[in-house]
Records
---
Amino acid sequence: MRYPSVDVIIPTYKPDHTFSVILRRLSEQKYPVSNILIINTEEKYWDPELIRDIPRADVFHISKEQFDHGATRNMGAGFSTADYIVFMTQDAIPKDKNLIRKLLEPFAYPLVKVSYARQLPRKDCKIIEGFSRSFNYPAESIVKTEEDITTQGIKALFCSDVCACYEREFHKSMGGFEEPCIFNEDMIFAAKTLKKGYSVAYAADARVIHSHNYTTMQQFHRNFDNGVSQAMHPEVFAKVSPEGEGFHMVMDTAAYLNSIGRSYMIPQLIWQTAFKYAGFSMGKLYDILPSGMVRRLSMNKNFWSYSNIEDE
């Protein structure tokens, strides 16, 4: 009996020691990885020693101007002939040796075409960000269908290429990820999957360690790009406003801070939320803002050159 093959695709830019840990843990998975395909931005920042002792790992270099969240991942998918492709980021560390096996388990259901992993906070993760991990990535698995959009709203479309698995032929038949794509290539693909009558699975037992301690301004820039993405794809996001889900997360976070005796952090939560919302709101208005301002406000500044938005 032939077991389905799995390739892992990882875009990188200036990878550090964390990436070497990820590669080692991928090579130790109980369900074997066929190939690790690395799409690295800027060869001058690449250290060949990172993959010297990693079997079946290949690196392909692109320039910073070529990077795009959708196109770069599609490039990696094009190099694969595996049955399944797992997209990861260079800072998502497999929690254990069962990551790949647990990502594949939901595909036992024929309608499941995508699965994504639970994200656990790093040891250095700050309290507010740590709670957001548990809010967005709970301990219970779920299989989502188009019907869930009515009850769950934007949460039904949620998926994260920090660590997500796709049936390769299905991914290809759908045209891959949107490109160019400044943000949310995973959610846009998930939405199309649901609308085709298929399912997206959240595999809570497939776990990676991943979190960020973004500054307030970094959160602003990141949410600006999120707003841009949602404005560019009204066919996906127009009927699933994220504000309600965001409000619930803020209220739950405030209740959590109060419950652990950290109510003095609630003003900080409100401040951070205000910057996130301001960034998101301005991003949704990107098409009426001066092009120079858009580039300054965006986290992914090279996107605006790649997509020739300014020439439209």
---
Amino acid sequence: MSNLELSLDNLRARQEANAQKSLLRQLQLPLWAETQRGVPNSLLRSALFAAIQRGKRPFLKRQLMASVENASITYTGIRLCQDYLTVWECLVHVAREQQLGNRCEVTTYQLLKLLDKKDTGGNRQVLRRQLAELQATALEVRQGRYTYSGSLIDEAYHDEETGRAIIVLNQRIVALYQGDGYTKVSWQIRRDLRTSLAKWLHGFYATHRQPFPYTVAKLHELCGSNAKSLKDFEEKTLATALEDLATVAKSHGEHFRYLVERCPGGKSLVHVTRNPDAKLPLNPQICG
């Protein structure tokens, strides 16, 4: 390596170190409206919170999760589904007005209300289990130039005397909320979607200003579906979820149109637009 190359490498290393130090001085997440949820794009564009049904889920150890090309997630913990993303979104939403790393206190009743669930003994038990399982996670996330290593929740416990849940988020998670690295997702639309795949698709396409066409096979991989038949996934699960998302988006005044194009060779492409003036299909570029 030449002296010039060595000098450039040292300069880049110092710039990266300074960027990380600057992040640690940013003690608060960006703000968003009550009707929104702020979520890092890397989490929405991956199989971390899979579009799978409730039930028994395996424990994963340093599993490289399916994701888009400019991000990577290595994950340890119980297999997570969309229910956990809903809970995590609400926790971050509550904590966004406080300094990261500080205790965020919230009543179980308030959390259940945010989740649109009744305050029953059964729902309280489920929520406590979900908080414990979100805490017992380990992630290594690379999102563009930024990285995060830690759990989804640093601390989560229940104060029996006050009846309040105590939540602490890792200060370094702010790295995933830099610039356009996160998306403000419509909570009203997500809340009204019926299936886990519809919720995953909503988050995934919300991160795209103008979505590229994706093959059905690629969407199947990225959403973490455990459907064994690609044909059944396309004709039953995916078709229902896309229609659900289009209907719910329209009811909230947002535009979402899709077209499934069957191509020679058996491939199927999913074209999506959120622009009311755009025509489908949109772009010859294929992702996946």
---
Amino acid sequence: MMPERVKVRVKKKKNKRKIILKRILLLFFLFSIVFAGLIGYKVYKTLQAADSSYKELDRGEKSKLRKEVVDLKKKQPFSVLLLGVEDYATNGKGGRTDSIIVATINPKQKTMKLLSIPRDTRVEISGDTSGTKTRINAAYGKGGAQTTVETVENLLDIPIDYYATVDFKGFKKTIDEVGGVDVDVPFDFSEKSDTSKSKKFYFQKGNMHLNGEEALAYARMRKQDPRGDFGRNDRQKQILMAMLDQTSKPSNLAKIDTLADQVSDNITTNLRITQVLALQQIFSGFKGSDVETLTLKGSDLYIGNKYFFQPDAEELTKIQEELYNFLYPNK
């Protein structure tokens, strides 16, 4: 038989262990509540920001070149038209597209193709019945995102499922919020800031880390580039791929609500809240190396004193076929 004193000690030890275990479970439970509340708050804030940026096109959800609406939950290939809008000269009204990029994405294979369309590309603007051709960047000023989407669809002969416009403020805010981007500068050059003509940024050949204001200057410079608009397009795609790498970092995924709230006033899109959530899953694990960049080839054309970029007919057909096959891999 166990002595009474020993029994008391064993009971005390057992009680102490139970108390410690209860405290650990309680702390774990409280942590779980706080964590769940934090995640819920982040999701709520992200969705709230996405909702304020939503603007449906007049056509509705479906492109005229689609038989049915793309279902992102089924991971069907889709396209997004990314438009960088320069509207500071018009106080936010109208404006022109400083950059026009078509992104086609295959969620199952986690691959993407990026095509920059030179802003001086000579096209017929959708809805213009006169038959005259002008620069594609004029489409936004004439009919906003709707007209630009239709004009790009007519040029590439593929459906544009979604669009997103971002102005200069939104571009800079996004890059600053993710901690800047790393780029490989192709040659030495300088460029003025968009906020002050007296402020200038200097870019040296090689690797550089850029903040939002610097990245915008880097993406906009054209006159000093020996390749003109094509060189600028490549730098814009370079920044997009760098942003993709940055936003996929755990530290930036953790503050997705802050990022969404910061840029919501400067972005317009026809992506619904449920589609934004689907995109978050689609782009999880995406890297800049998963992106293939395409180039629309053509020649310089002057009509009077006005410069245009004239796409080569055969090269345009190749681009059309490549993008179509990417969007419809089973056909």
